[in-house]
Design a protein that fits this description.
- The termini are far apart.
- Helices cover about 35% and strands about 25% of the residues.
- The protein has eight helices and eight strands; from the N terminus they run ααβαβαββαβαβαβαβ.
- It is of the alpha/beta class and about 220 residues long.
- Helix 6 (about 135-145) links the parallel strand 5 (about 125-135) and strand 6.
- The radius of gyration is 16 Å and the shape is globular.
- It has a single domain (about 5-210), classed as Vaccinia Virus protein VP39 (Rossmann fold), CATH 3.40.50.
- Strands 1, 2, 3, 4, 5, 6, 7 and 8 form an eight-stranded mixed sheet that branches.
């Protein structure tokens, strides 16, 4: 998928609803202070980065794909920074950011534990991950057999696996929610989202957040 195609999908009615639903959930769990300095790991075309900027956060986006970064730089929302970088070896000093967020990017990173450790190293406060939920309708539709389309090659997590990933990194106060029960984005999907998303663990989007332990900064 090209950067243009990726970004264009988020600007369709369905894509915008899914993006906004995921964004609000991550912000709810991340609880950043106003004007927080944030790092978006695996930012892709910059859709979520720009969304953070529009809410007043100071954001840097990184991605391994140079074409995605070039697109993101050309479509800045304001003065956010974009860098080509490896999630498993972030080019920042420890505690450089207030918070770190990664939206369905670690699902494609081979060294996900190392990437998470790096996020925790460069964050002072909290880290939030958006993952693909293996116990979801979306997995049944798009994830089986190696995945289809944009989901090809993605890693899908169960809730217990996501918790174990953060626990192994020493995260404190792990919180988890899911969203996007049905990815169609239609009337039924939006109605179910409003009624069940608070308690149902079967949304295609699994959001998990936690506080960074002091030890993470010494790695």
């Amino acid at each position: 998928m090209t950067p243009e195609q990726y970004d264009a999908w988020y600007n369709t009615p369905r894509g915008r609803w899914i993006g906004e639903t995921e964004y609000r959930l991550l912000i709810e769990l991340l609880r950043p202070s106003p004007n927080a300095r944030m790092l978006d790991v695996g930012c892709g075309s910059g859709w979520f980065t720009r969304r953070l900027v529009r809410d007043g956060y100071r954001v840097t986006g990184i991605d391994f794909d140079a074409a995605m970064i070039a697109y993101a730089r050309a479509h800045r929302a304001a003065v956010e920074d974009y860098l080509v970088a490896d999630a498993a070896a972030l080019p920042f000093v420890s505690r450089a950011f207030d918070c770190c967020v990664s939206v369905t990017a670690l699902c494609f990173v081979r060294e996900e534990a190392r990437a998470l450790a790096e996020m925790m190293r460069v964050a002072r406060g909290r880290v939030a991950l958006g993952l693909l939920n293996r116990r979801s309708v979306l997995y049944l539709q798009k994830g089986r057999g190696g995945g289809k389309g944009a989901y090809r090659g993605a890693r899908w997590h169960r809730a217990a696996e996501a918790r174990a990933l953060l626990r192994a990194a020493g995260a404190r106060g792990i919180e988890m929610r899911s969203a996007v029960l049905l990815a169609s984005g239609g009337t039924v999907a939006r109605t179910l989202e409003g009624l069940l998303s608070v308690c149902a663990p079967w949304g295609g989007f699994l959001a998990v957040a936690a506080a960074v332990p002091a030890a993470a900064h010494d790695r």
